[in-house]
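Per reviewer request, we include the raw input and output of the structure prediction for the construct analysed in the revised manuscript.
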Amino acid sequence: MVKFEKSISQLLPYDREQYIAYFDEDDHTFDGKTVWHAVSLQQGKIKDEKLYQASEEIVTKCIDVLEESFRKIISRLDQGLPWIVNHDDKDLRWFNKEDNTMMKMRRLFEQSNIPISFIGCLIFSKEGLLDFARELITYPYILSYKNLDVSHSKLPFVIKMTGHLTLDLLSTDKALLTNILNDDTFDSFLKITYRSR
């Protein structure tokens, strides 16, 4: 259902170093050869009030909408191939300490005999990814930790989950990204285009 891998870059269908460099204006290693197109999907109710001051009801509704949208994207792009989940720009431990947060994810590590200090990526089938959708979406928010990237193993397409409860969609294939964004699922979202390099 889920595999744990320490080597991430060789599994991705894009150059991870250049991906990270593209979105970091201070990174001078970007070679200028690959252009990424990116849009942040944000919800107005959360944007109108500070996230950590929003009521539990608003946050729960926000997570529900993000989960439904995430599931639709995965179902549209899935080709029966693995999905790779990793921290977005730096590989760190998955959990910094033992506590009672993210219990479903923690049980996954425990049942797989993987320490919570594991550094690397998780490889999911579509079914496994959908089963852990809510945990992955809320991971950066609940832990106030790293954002997560969910990458298709063949298509240059990344879904970034952020601590601000947004889904950011990134791809080197502008037509693919546009096709996904044109789905009426995303009509209720604010679509904020990333500034390009």
